[in-house]
Amino acid sequence: MTDQKKVLVLCRIPEDVVARLDRDYDATFNQENVPHDAAQIIAAALGQDALVTTSTNKMTAEVIAGLSDSVRIIANFSVGYEHIDIDAARARGLIVTNTPDVLTEATADTAMLHLLGAARRATEGAALIREGGWVGSVLDFNLGVDLANKKLGVLGMGRIGQALAHRAAAFGMEVHYHNRNRLDAAREAYAGNAVYHTDSDSLLEISQFLSIHSPLTPETHHFLNAERIAKMPDGAIVVNTSRGDVVDDEALIAALKSGKLRGAGLDVFSAEPNINPGYHDLKNVFMLPHIGSATVETRNAMGFCAVDNLDAYFAGKPPLTAVT
Ligand code: DGY
After folding, report:
1. Among candidates 175, 130, 155, 128, which has minimal Cα distance to 216?
2. What atom in ligand 1 is closest to the CA of residue 55?
3. Tens of pLDDT along 144-186?
4. Does residue 245 sit in helix, strand or coil?
5. CA-closest residue to ligand 1 atom 6
6. Catalytic residue among 167, 213, 290, 299
């Protein structure tokens, strides 16, 4: 007989996090990562006190309405929570938490990797060497562009945008940004003495590199469309490590094909993992499979953050990082 709270984990999670949940809760895991549709989530959640989930499980209004009354908290294992209908959760008094902060540095590293990968044509170089097509050093071979002395536009200057800006400044980039609110002077200094743009158009117009860090909301859906790409300098490079749907894929693909944009570094895609096939043959896109926060340290920290939220809630304290 146990009085441990029942926790259902809907996605595969790191073993260290499994061990902690196993020790402190009556936990059920999905380490085979079997996808659950709405009906399966509702059935599996019956009698559970808490759910741990991530973006692969869509917590729609229908799912939330169907959850057993016993479920009091959803500890989301990611900072992004656009896969959860927050209004529906609020309406039934369900706590939702996310995992901010702990993934800032890893995700900013990944954004930097994409800036470099796209600027230095890493996709072409890597393919050539693997396929045996490298014929030796030729002085005009596989030339990329420098980051140093280029203007970097950061769209969305939250924690990750600031950490990316900090890194980019160390690479000699001149940082500009647009955000709903201007940062205070200390944060701007940390973010490479970033220059604030009150409107996104003026940021786009100067962005030789653009790094997207906005969350996905109805306002940012397909923000980077053909009209906005047209405002950017010719030969600019776009990096996206936030959410795929902030970019209109067809517009980006057309601009990469026409040469309007020199390249792109993409970590996130609409309809992951079924990405727009238009990207498959584009050599000027450096692509990675949504690995922004995928380091051992960071994924453990995200998992522990989710469990810390459960611990706090079940101890009668406010969750540490609640979004409802
Ligand atoms: C997040 O935490 O939102 C990252 O994108 C990983 O899913």
Report:
1. 155
2. 7
3. 999 999 999 999 999 999 999 999 999 999 999 999 999 999 9
4. helix
5. 78
6. 290
Active site residue 272: yes
Counting as low any pLDDT under 70, the low residues of the chain are 1-2
Is residue 224 within 8 Å of 204, Cβ to Cβ?
Answer: no
* Structure token pair of residue 96: 């939702």
Instruction: Please check whether residue 102 is in contact with residue 301, taking contact to mean a CB–CB distance below 8 angstroms.
Output: yes
Q: Ligand 1 pocket test: pick from 97, 98, 107, 270 the residue with the most ligand atoms within 8 Å of its Cβ.
A: 107
| Residue 322, strand partner residues | 97
- What pLDDT is attached to residue 1? 47
Alpha helices in the chain (DSSP H): 15-24, 38-44, 61-66, 86-91, 104-119, 122-130, 159-170, 185-190, 200-206, 226-231, 249-258, 296-314
User: What is the Cα–Cα distance from 244 to 146, expressed in whole angstroms?
Assistant: 26
Residue 206's CB is within 10 A of a number of other CB atoms, namely 18
* Residue 272 alpha carbon to ligand 1 centre in Å: 13
Looking up tokens 């399966």 gives 40
Q: What is the DSSP string of 137-193?
A: --TTTT-----TT-EEEEES-SHHHHHHHHHHHHTTPEEEEE-SSPPPHHHHHHTTS
The model's pTM is: 0.96
